[in-house]
């Protein structure tokens, strides 16, 4: 199976959590040993948002701030590559052509951002299209999509499934400035929809949830068409 896994910025706090990164790497190595071909897309994390905010206050436009975020996401990709060792392709692709080329190696290919105006969620969707992925997993620190914000709405319920149309409506309400993307931005949702990429949003605080999703077990929220 061809898999694309988007690792949310939660995995990369202000000070790298080595144990958590190693736990995730162990699961990815296990999946590769089972014959899966894997692309990992890393988010920028809190450090990216801190520097994006600083660049904005210093006069950088949104495109410039996006470039700042892209560089942080690529740094996080390098951390994952270090943790994966020989299981990982040693370079971080900077465009789709390199993405396709590196993927052919058979090793786990890790990447960050690609271009301004595109969140790493959109990068994951583009990667899934480019390699013909059988599955896209958005690994976050929440256990799926809710009817409301579970942190502020006690009546919010997790959805087992959500349509592309409904997810797009949620995405359009999100902040679209550099560093402001959260669950999925509109570009990512539209790419998923046009290519009908099987997609799950799940909580990866327990990295084994990736394996459960791949095995067809009930976990997170599935995006349906």
Provide the fold topology.
Layout: E1 2-7, H1 18-33, E2 37-42, H2 45-57, H3 62-84, H4 96-103, E3 109-111, H5 120-131, E4 135-140, E5 145-146, E6 158-159, E7 161-163, H6 164-172, H7 186-195, E8 199-203, H8 208-214, E9 221-224
Describe the structure in your own words.
It is a single chain. This protein is of the alpha/beta class. The chain has one domain (2-224): Carbamate kinase (3-Layer(aba) Sandwich). Helix content is 44%, strand content 16%. The protein has a seven-stranded mixed β-sheet, with helices on both faces. A two-stranded antiparallel sheet has the order 5-6. The radius of gyration is 16 Å and the shape is globular.
Q: What's the short version?
A:
It is built from 8 helices and 9 strands.
**What portion of the residues fall into strands of 2 or more residues?**
15-25%
Low-pLDDT regions: none
Biggest sheet: strands side by side, in what order?
Answer: 3-2-1-4-8-9-7
How large is the count of helical segments?
A: 8
**For the record, what CATH class applies?**
Alpha Beta
Shape: globular
CATH H-tier superfamily = Acetylglutamate kinase-like
Helix content: 40-55%
Rg computed from alpha carbons, rounded to a whole number of angstroms:
16 Å
Overall structural class, as computed from helix and strand content, comes to: alpha/beta
Mean pLDDT: 91
Series of secondary-structure elements, N-terminal to C-terminal: EHEHHHEHEEEEHHEHE
Number of strands: 9
Architecture per CATH nomenclature, i.e. the level-2 architecture: 3-Layer(aba) Sandwich
Oligomer: single chain
Largest sheet: 7 strands, mixed
CATH topology: Carbamate kinase
Number of domains: 1
